[in-house]
Amino acid sequence: MVRIGVEERRTRIGRRHRLGPAVQAADPVGAAASMVALHATDPATVHLSVAARVPGSEVAGTERALYDNRTLIRMLGMRRTVFVVPTTFAPVVQAACTDDIADKQRKLLVKHLTEAGIAPDADASGKWLRAVEESTATALTLRGSATAQELAADEPRLRSRLSMAEGKAYAAQPYVTSRVLFQLSAEGRIVRGRPLGTWLSSQHQWSPAEDWLPGGLGDKLTADEARMRLARGWLSSFGPGTAADLQWWAGWTAGQTKKALTAVEAVAVDLDGQVGYVLPGDEAPEVPMEPWVSFLPALDPTPMGWKERDWYLGEHKAKLFDSTGNVGPTVWADGRIIGGWGQPESGEVRFELLEDVGRETVRLVEAEAARWTAWLAGVRVTPRFRAPLEKQLSQG
Question: What local confidence, expressed as pLDDT, does residue 103 receive?
């Protein structure tokens, strides 16, 4: 097998993830496509991930792509996580990942409805859920777009309560509203539209998929074909990587992962003792790059692209990830993480380097911190999932 070492993998990050100054993307769609998809669990991540890859990017430009041109779409995808995906690629994500998630979540919701006493058994709960879904979808079609609260006013059954963790200290009785909307979204029937507040808001209006995108999510693909195309996309952006990396990233089973790698005729390579994979013809070294640094936001797709991270993360996991595996804001140099950043109440970008990188790199980092301070223009972004170093830098 051809050996692909750590330095080559780091070079690929800079070029393929559009982080080096000479290889940045032309627009938000190009930035998203270079990463397959942008994490969107935290709404700020989308805008910051684009700004890290598109020179001169502004929030308004990304919003136009999302809400006016609709060349990007926010949807549920890999690992039951919300992503922003190029609209043309959305059917791939839907068939490769989201359809399976929708099936599993429907069964779970029916179980919870039965346990809450909303219906006497699973069959009746399933029928109740279908009826509420159809009524909700009709209400949304009549309105054109609506908030969860508006839909609950139209369909009172959305205010039914579940009973979660009964008898536990963390017991709760949430409304079924968000679960029903989640289900309709996972099945591709409704989509998340504009936020209710600023670009930092996680509350969105909902729209029927057919109204938002003529034809909805487009042609239906088979699951196998979609997984093959998603695996090809991941290998193009993140390869080489191991089967375990791809399985974790996509949220697939081992069997689904193996089948997808076989379908794309992935080529095995030696990752310093581990078996990795690249696309056919992608074994050759990448073109070298000039030195570069980048500030990436919490949950950026670059650090979240692999399960095994030592080759770019080093010994910094404890300071840069939270206890459940979510990455905080990171500072990168030439394909490896060298530190983290955060914002105190005053809004400027502060950073801390976790290793000695030399004067020239420090100068590049200082210039990038100043650029981000100017870009944010006093807006303070607090990640939804906070890492220890980000918390420390945001104090004071």
Answer: 97
E strands, the chain, are: 38-39, 72-76, 82-86, 190-195, 204-208, 267-271, 274-278, 293-296, 330-333, 336-342, 350-353
- Separation of alpha carbons 169 and 184, rounded Å: 31
- In this predicted model, what pLDDT tens digit does every residue of 97-146 receive, in sequence order? 999 999 999 999 999 999 999 999 999 999 999 999 999 999 999 999 99
CA distances from 160 to 149, 152, 171 (A): 13, 10, 16
CA 235, CA 212: separation in Å to the nearest integer?
31
Task: Find the domain containing 348 and state its range.
Answer: 309-393
Q: CA-CA distance, 190 to 148, in Å (whole number)?
A: 12
Q: What is the mean predicted confidence (pLDDT) over 348-365?
A: 97
pTM, whole model, 2 decimals? 0.95
Amino acid at 244: A
Number of structural domains in the chain: 2
Assess if residue 274 is contained within a domain: no
Q: How far apart are CA 224 and CA 100, in angstroms?
A: 12
Contact 177, 206 (CB under 8 A): no
Q: Would you say 297 and 290 are in contact if contact means Cβ atoms under 8 Å apart?
A: no
CA-nearest of 191, 237, 234 to 210 is: 191
